Amino acid sequence: MPRGRYSLHDPHDHTPLAEEHFQCAPGPSGWRYVSRLTAPSGDHLGSVDLALDELGRPIRLELHAASWQVRGAALDGVTWVRTDPTGTHATEGNARAHAFTGSSPAFLIATARLLRLTPSAPATRVRLVAFTDPVLAPLTVDQSWTLVEREAHATDNGPLTVDEYQITALDTGEQHAVHLAGDVVLAAPGIELEDLESPPSALD
Question: Is the pTM of this model over 0.85?
Fold first, then answer.
């Protein structure tokens, strides 16, 4: 069960945004990731709880940020309910999308599990609903994912397989690289793995 800490920063000017303390594990129904976020000051910022089924589809998502809350799942595409800080207004949303995304590293792992790409596979298009900081506003985005390279690295615990993905935002053409090892993000724009207490779990 990987457990550790990511640091999140602005990918453009590297301003520190948060630290995300996480743990994740494969389970009988798929995979689950839970985390809590703290500001550079140490204040609590929010939390992530994401569960996937064996095909990589989100069966439960719960996000908290700035007193806003989102609960979602794969249902008729994806469906979610967003509640304001007062708890009096809840807005339901639905989109013909494959899954969710956001600033948490969890969503990169989740999309990789959903797509299950191989190095020889062509670029794959995916539609996602992003919940944007700081108020978890929903935004539908289209991306293209390509598994560029898969390399095995020798470690004290045996070989570690690292996948390099190229992700393209289809609305802007902006591209960036993401490196994953099993269910841990090794490097991605705005994300650094600062601490890892146990080896990653395999993606399959």
Answer: yes
